[in-house]
Specification:
mainly alpha; 9 helices; 2 domains; Tetracycline Repressor, domain 2; Arc Repressor Mutant, subunit A
């Protein structure tokens, strides 16, 4: 058998673990099944990873890197706030919404990690990375629209956006209703745009009142 570098083998096993997790869930993703999926011996799994927890951590890292990689390439059409926000979601959604099995894995691994002492920190790091990326995106969007946000507002908006997208994706995983998910995201775009404008003090100015026309006083005839 040809030699395969360890990093390449690790990537192969992460991909195999993700497929098994999508089909079988965490409980069914045994080392044997993952090895069979990758077409390697069980010993190869243990050579590349200390144990299954380390392999699951690598799967979590892979999912996070994939998400952040897609979000980092979001186009920003200058000046149009709604178009910039929608462009970010359009780039992100094929990653978070296209493969419901993969997204179910993400949720399941996050909950598993929170119950596993060695993985709990990984789950927190995962969310921290996502929040930081969304916060950075919102700063770029607001700046591109000429609406600089006050301190603390990008972080608050990021938590709101991540929570809403998480909820929309979870509903999609459970119901398979893409139209409902898109409706939620469309509403999110409008709401975030409104919040950015308000936070930046750029609420719509009232229409100018028309100038009051002066009525000339009648001329007073000179006294005779």
């Amino acid at each position: 058998m040809a030699y395969v570098p360890v990093e390449q083998r690790r990537a192969q096993l992460v991909a195999a673990a993700l497929r098994v997790l999508s089909r079988e869930g965490v409980v069914g993703a045994t080392t044997r099944r993952i090895a069979d999926e990758a077409g390697v011996q069980v010993g190869t799994v243990h050579y590349c990873f200390t144990d299954k927890e380390e392999l699951f951590a690598a799967v979590m890292d892979h999912l996070t890197d994939e998400l952040l990689g897609a979000g980092g390439g979001a186009p920003l059409p200058d000046g149009d706030l709604v178009a910039m926000l929608r462009g970010g979601l359009d780039v992100l959604w094929p990653v978070v919404g296209a493969d419901r099995g993969k997204q179910a894995v993400g949720y399941e691994l996050t909950l598993t990690a929170m119950r596993t002492p060695r993985l709990e920190g990984r789950a927190r790091q995962q969310y921290a990375a996502c929040l930081a990326a969304v916060e950075s995106f919102l700063r770029r969007v607001a700046a591109g629209a000429g609406l600089p946000l006050p301190d603390g507002e990008p972080a608050r908006l990021a938590r709101w956006v991540v929570a809403t997208v998480d909820g929309a994706v979870l509903q999609l995983v459970v119901t398979g209703d893409e139209a409902a998910a898109y409706e939620v995201l469309d509403g999110l775009v409008v709401a975030v745009a409104t919040r950015i404008r308000e936070s930046a003090g750029a609420t719509a100015a009232p229409a100018a009142r028309p100038a009051r026309r002066r009525v000339p006083k009648p001329a007073v005839p000179p006294e005779s």
